[in-house]
Amino acid sequence: MSTLYHHHHHSHKHATHVPVAPVLEPPPLFAVVAKHIYRFSFIELDAASYPFLRSLQLKKVILLSAERPSKTLTTFVEQEGINLTHYGLTSERDDHENDSNGANTQQSGGEASLDPLDGFFGSASAISKSIISEHTIKNALQNLLDVRNHPIAICDTSGMHETGVLVGCMRKMQSWNFASILVEYRSFAGSKSRAPNERFIEMFNISTPDLPPERHRPSWLQHAKTDRANGR
Length: 232
Fold this sequence. Notes:
five-stranded mixed β-sheet; phosphatase activity; Siw14-like; PFA-DSPs; alpha/beta; Protein-Tyrosine Phosphatase, Chain A; Protein-tyrosine phosphatase
């Protein structure tokens, strides 16, 4: 009888050792923007977050800050075969100087442009020289709104400002009302929200980005376009 009891007790002891799957840790300020579109801050990004990012099976990462990506981030995207597009951060004045000098670098917001609409946000840029440029936003949106680049992630050092402006402009293209766009922007920026960024989003002309062919656009963009046409 004692032998049977011992055997039962021994089996119960081993049954407590159940393997537990590791918990994936998202990057700072991580959020889902839309289907297959994500955002995060890379300023405190460490190795613990890379398994989570790997699980997203990203094709492209858009980096909007002027700061160069960390060595660990560049190593990660290279190992995973992810395309890293670094637009950087420039003021409108810098964009115009690049245009006049014929500059053509991704670090200063992409290819040089002679588009007269590039001065559209001059008033906002005069308030803050560090505001992200319209030219950069247009280029980033072209990547963001092309499903061939999905899954895709947007990041900057803060995870609030440049990313917040890009997401806010995308929300306008989704036909969000401006009050809702501000709520989302401020939910990330908090007390660090910037009036010039909010003004930038408010003034953004949704007709300026060159969209990919219709078959390569997200389905929600088609719905938003239909809603605008129907006056919803």
